[in-house]
Amino acid sequence: MAGKFHINRSGIVCVLAETKKQSTVAKNRSQLAKHQDKLKLESIKVQVDDLKEKQSRAKKKLINLDEQKKRLKNWDYSIQQDEDWNDRLEKSDLPDDYAQIAERAYTKDLSKALTPLSQEEYNTQKQEYYRTRSQGIPYVHKPSSEKLESVINHVKAKDERTLRKINKNKIRNSLSGGDTNYINDKNKQFNEKLNRHYK
Description:
Involved in pre-mRNA splicing. It is a single chain. The chain has six helices and two strands; from the N terminus they run E-E-H-H-H-H-H-H. It is mostly helical and 199 residues long. It has a domain at 5-63. It has a two-stranded antiparallel sheet. The protein starts with a strand and ends with a helix.
């Protein structure tokens, strides 16, 4: 044992009371530290709960203020105007980004190019698929020549339309006397006005 000791009359080694005192003081300090940590945690939890409650009250106030603002703003409109506006919002259903726009255009294009299958064609293709699958042969779909022709004609017509637009723009630009491609006519007029002013 570390610390001071002495031998009493009977020859037994005794640890002095100081070492006992030190060990009890150390235990008390550790217990006190644990108790203080618990109190700190509890006070922090109470503070967090108070902050959450204050935050929820503030959110409710903001929501109420926003609703009141909307009500005051809507007092300026008639019932008919409000109904028209709501109808317009429902009809618009605008896409969120360019990917959705491209997807809609693609599906619209496909629906024009491809005619849907009749129930008989669908059933025959389904039976053919299951028959070849049960034999272990991979199923290869071969579309009819009419469907291939309709898709090819649709793609050609689309390409012709885009070429006509490009040629029309080239002719318009050559008549204006420049190689500049304008975004629209207003931009072209503005640029010509600037050229007149600064020449």
